[in-house]
């Protein structure tokens, strides 16, 4: 049976799962590890526009981890709590932006960005 063009290919599904796992990691942090493993395993699969999403997801993990560690250390002073709040908003915005681009089958315009 042929796959219709309106159904997403499995690589797209995995990218979507990774974004959702990042959002779930806000509550259950361990899911971010699963998401980054999915991104590393699938980063060489699919068309170039999809590869940009995997690269974006890998960077989201490592930069998010950096923001989390620095914010945690600085939480001894007030600035750390603001940094942790920023990292929460940052991960949500990155995932929603990535999901939107993924649904329209567009490459992420700046997969190496540190911001949104």
What can you see in these coordinates?
The protein is mainly alpha-helical. It has helices spanning about 10-25, 30-40, 50-75, 80-105. Helices cover about 70% and strands about 0% of the residues. The radius of gyration is 15 Å and the shape is elongated. It starts with 9 loop residues before the first helix and ends in a 13-residue tail after the last helix.
Strand count, sense and closure of the main sheet? none
The global form is elongated
In terms of DSSP E residues, the strand content is under 5%
Question: Mean pLDDT, rounded to whole units?
Answer: 89
Tell me the Rg in angstroms.
Answer: 15 Å
The low-confidence parts are none
Distance from N terminus to C terminus (CA atoms, Å) equals: 40 Å
What's the total count of β strands? 0
- Number of helical stretches of at least 4 residues: 4
* Helical content (DSSP H or I, runs of 4+): 55-70%
Structural class: mainly alpha
Order of helices and strands: HHHH
Quick summary of this structure?
The protein is mainly α and 116 residues long. It is built from four helices and no strands.
Question: Would you spell out the secondary-structure blueprint of this structure?
Answer:
Blueprint: H1 10-24, H2 31-42, H3 48-74, H4 78-103
Helix pairs in contact: 1-2, 1-3, 1-4, 2-3, 3-4
Characteristics of this structure?
116 residues; mainly alpha; 69% helix; elongated
């Amino acid at each position: 049976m042929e796959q219709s063009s309106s159904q997403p290919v499995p690589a797209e599904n995995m990218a979507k799962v990774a974004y959702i796992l990042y959002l779930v990691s806000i509550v259950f942090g361990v899911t971010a590890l699963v998401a980054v493993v999915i991104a590393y395993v699938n980063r060489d699969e699919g068309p170039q526009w999809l590869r940009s999403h995997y690269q974006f997801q890998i960077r989201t993990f490592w930069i998010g981890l950096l923001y989390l560690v620095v914010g945690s250390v600085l939480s001894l002073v007030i600035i750390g709590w603001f940094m942790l709040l920023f990292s929460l908003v940052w991960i949500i915005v990155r995932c929603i932006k990535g999901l939107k681009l993924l649904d329209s089958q567009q490459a992420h315009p700046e997969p190496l960005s540190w911001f949104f």
